[in-house]
Amino acid sequence: MTHHFTDPSPFTDPSGSGLSRYGWTETLDNAFAEHRAAGLVPARIARVDRGLCDAVTESGPVRAALTAPHSPDPLLAPCTGDWAALLPGREPRLVALLPRRSAIVRSSASRSSHGQVLAANVDTVVLAVSLAARLDAARLERLLALAWDSGARPLIVLTKADVAPDPAAVQAEAAALAPGVDILVTSVTTGQNIDVLTALLSGTTVLLGSSGAGKSSLGNALLGDELLATGAVRAQDGKGRHTTVRRELVPLPGGGVLIDTPGLRGISLYDAADGLEQVFSDIEGLARDCRFGDCSHGTEPGCAVQAAIQAGELTRRRLDNYRKLQRENAYAASRTDARLRGERTNRQKAITSHLRATYRFRDRQS
């Protein structure tokens, strides 16, 4: 379910409205022409809360009601980072969403077959991983799949280097799990590599990670101010409370915007086949050299994946987690397909019922 960027470059708005600071582009401006002709104004959603949202418009921030067409599918609900069409006035109302060019999606926490969008129109996904705790390889691979599948660029930021005994060793371990991903060791306390991280970011950046990983502290360092709430971390397991209780979008001093998110406990994949292929590109590459095209990488002769494990070039844990995530993703996809089939069936039943009622009425009139 990979999304692709169309026009990430900022747009210098001749009106000087300031929306370009939040990522408004010429492509978006052209696409908004019909909405503008209808008296609507562009807005970017900064925060969503119980049927209302905080949004940024050409004339400044507003609090607006969410009156866009209702859908039972959370994938279609407005979220932080969305661009929207707003009806201005004494009681502003959000009436439509613009198409997303990227979206971070996980399976709904309700365990339904729906997906949940964590953030929209993102350029870089910063995966914050604390060096104060042991690296959870399986969790990092899961986060990477989520990030790659969004269509954004993942960036692993190892935090709290000032309290880590051997940051370089953890960096090397993370590099083995993340082919093609940049990894940066940082410390908010000492300022290590904060300037490097700032230079790497452009457009819209979202912070993802576990509670206690130092996301909000990292965000405050990037913002140059204590704008995001931070909290203490338990010494016994390195975990913290959810000091960020909802997703919010704030502008960065040097340009672009930052989306902070609550710490993620559950990260269930949702239609993330492309993301998994990217995360486990080493296994995918080895599989192409297997003797059999349908090799399950078990006991088949001529299996290049098993040969790599025997040679110490690939860990069995990584292969096992790859298989686990593939099964999980396939199950989520099958549930989604079943739900869509059910919705189509229900729509067809409603149409049939309506036609029958029409025919009965017509017969009574004849």
From TrEMBL:
The gene it comes from is rsgA
What the entry lists under PROSITE patterns is as follows: ENGC_GTPASE, G_CP
What organism is listed for this UniProt entry? Nonomuraea rhodomycinica
Q: Name one GO biological process term.
A: ribosomal small subunit biogenesis
Q: Give cofactor(s), names only.
A: Zn(2+)
**Residue stretches making up the CP-type G domain:** 112-267
Q: Which UniProt keywords apply?
A: Cytoplasm, GTP-binding, Hydrolase, Metal-binding, Nucleotide-binding, Ribosome biogenesis, RNA-binding, rRNA-binding, Zinc
- Domain (EngC GTPase) spans 120-265
Q: What is this protein called?
A: Small ribosomal subunit biogenesis GTPase RsgA
Output the superkingdom of the source species: Bacteria
- InterPro entries, sorted: G_CP_dom, P-loop_NTPase, Ribosome_biogen_GTPase_RsgA, RsgA_GTPase_dom
Q: What is its EC number?
A: 3.6.1.-
Q: Which residues bind Zn(2+)?
A: 290, 295, 297, 303
